[in-house]
Amino acid sequence: PEAEFGFWINCDSKAISCEVHITYNDHAYILESSPALGEDFRDTERENEIRNHVISWFPGYNPQYQYFVRMRNQDGDFDFITQGIEEFMELGEVHVSDSFRNIRVRRKWKMKMGISIESDLMTIQILSDEFSKEEVSEILASMVSHKRYHLLRNGEFLAIDNDEMETLMQLLGSENVSLKEFVTGKMHLPAYRALYIDNMLSEHEEISADRDKAFRQLIKNFNTVRDSDFEVPLSLHRVLRNYQVFGFKWVETLMSAGFGGILADDMGLGKTIQVLSALLYDVENRKNAGAPSIVVCPASLVYNWQEEIERFTPQLSHLVIAGNAKDRAESIGTCRDRDVIITSYDLLKRDIAEYEDISFYMAILDEAQFIKNHAAQVTKAVKLIHARHRLALTGTPIENRLSELWSIFDFLMPGFLFPYETFRNEVEIPVMKEGDEEAMDRLRRMASPFILRRLKQDVLKDLPEKTEETRYAILEGEQQRLYDAQVQHLRQMLQGQNDEEFNQGKIVVLSELTKLRQICCDPALLYDNYEGISAKRTLLLQLIQEAIEGGHKILVFSQFTSMLELIRKDLENAEISYYLLTGATPKAERVEMASRFNSDETPVFLISLRAGGTGLNLVGADIVIHCDPWWNQAVMNQATDRAHRIGQKRAVSVFRLIAKDTVEEKILKMQEMKRDMAEGVLGGETGGFAQLTKQELMDLLSVQ
Question: In the list 218, 272, 380, 530, which could disulfide-bond 524, CB 3.0-4.6 Å?
Answer without folding.
Answer: 530
